[in-house]
Amino acid sequence: MRGKGTVNAGNKKRQWWMLLVILAVCAVAVAGYGLSKSISERRKTAASEDLYQLVPVGHGSVTLKITSSGTVKPGSVYQVTPKLNSTINDIFVKPGDIVRKGQLLATLDKTDVLERLQEAKDNLAIAEAKLQEAESQADLAPVQARLQVEQARVNLLNAEAKLAQLKEGAKPQDIDQAKTQVRQAQLSCENAENEYNRYKILFEQGAVTRQQLENAENKHLTAIESLKALEQKLDLLLAEPDPAELAAAEASVAQAGTNLQVAEANEASLNTRQQLLTAKAQVAQARNAASAAERNVILTNVVSPVDGTITEVIAQPGLTVGPSNTLFVVTDLKHLNVIANVDETDVHSVKAGQAANVKVESIPGRVFKGVIESVAEQGKVISSVVYFEVTVKVTDDSGALKAGMTADVDIITDERSDVLIIPNSALENFRGFTAARVLNENGEPFFKRVELGISDGTITEVISGLEAGEMVAIPHPGTGVARTTSDRIQEGARNPMMQFIPGGVMPGPVEPGRSRFSGER
Fold first, then answer.
1. Is the pLDDT of residue 503 over 70?
2. Burial class for 253, CB neighbours closer than 10 Å (0-12, 13-18, 19+)
3. What's the CA gap between 202 and 270, in Å, rounded?
4. Which of the ends of the chain has fewer CB neighbours closer than 10 A, N or C?
5. What does 42-90 look like in DSSP terms, one character per residue?
6. Over the stretch 254-265, which tens digit does the pLDDT of each residue have?
């Protein structure tokens, strides 16, 4: 009995040991499987990182712009002309001087105007003496009184017509005719400039004589002067009436009305009272003439019409000048424009009011804000390419820009803010559609079809197909990752991580979008 119990106890002990061994083997197997799976996943992740650069889809801004070049030019140029025919005495400015509105630029000879002023004063003295005489005697004949009434009426009508013409300004047909002449002169000027440039090239090549070149240059200069004269004529037609001239016309109407009243009163009653009224009217007329002569004395001082910089001095002491002669050129250099040349293929996208950024090479890193002010209706040919002049008004210049500088202009034609964006390098053509690679939870790439908005050439707006935070996989250069369908089939055979299935791997339906990058919506 004792021997049998000892045997059973030994068997049980061996069974326990076997169970422990089996459990240990299972534990080691489980641990090995887990370690193997972890190593495999790490290898997959490492392989993906070796093949791709992972970039998150995020929010940002995309700007569509047209880049052009141009020249900085002054905002406005004023030609200063005298108001009287006279001789220049003194000049007080030189080119480069900064002047204020009303600042004295030159003086004209005052001899003639002072003589006329003295004459007007003498006439006033005579009128006042006649007034004193009229206070004691006045006996006017009826015929003379009637003639005075008719003449006074004619004078009143003439004065009223002149005043109405001043208030009304130039006739529309005269303005339209002047504008047409300016446009024709601009075309003639451009043609003459092109002809002159062509002759310069031919002269350098020995194809034309110097005389022919000089003739072309003179023709160009004549066209420029003709254009300036027509532009000045148009400015005069568009200008508001001169306050002094308007006041003088109103005074003339008032005076003519008074004269008519005097003449009618004289006709109705030939007495001392009428004589007195006539004398008073003559005194008033003489005073108006004296006031006009005094204004002419003031006009012998040539002053600047605006704040600006003297950019040209034509006046010379001793030179006889009149209202048709330009004495000075005053340029507004504080308010600058950039005249940019935009290619005919882009000009349809440029509109007045669009924002623009201006940069000049001499001020690196500085961007000047601007706005499109106008777009030329007619293009010009430069090196066999048609360009249109676009005027950009600089809105934030602090004196750093100078007229004549060459500038680069970025015209903002479209801009999207806080939209989903993706690098252009992450976009591929997949079966005729635009797609982006993404990685699943196992690090395996597949394609998602995307719909795009505008692009600036580096980044593109994503309308649908991707979400913010989603990672896109951009193949590293030199890894041999396929970018065509046939290449992807071969890649799938040699790279188990590229889960490509012929026919396409598309995660759910997406509305069709454009398969090209475009700024058009």
1. no
2. buried
3. 85
4. N
5. HHHHHHHHHHEEEEE-EEEEEEEEEEEEEEEEEEEEEEE--SS-EEEEE
6. 888 888 888 887
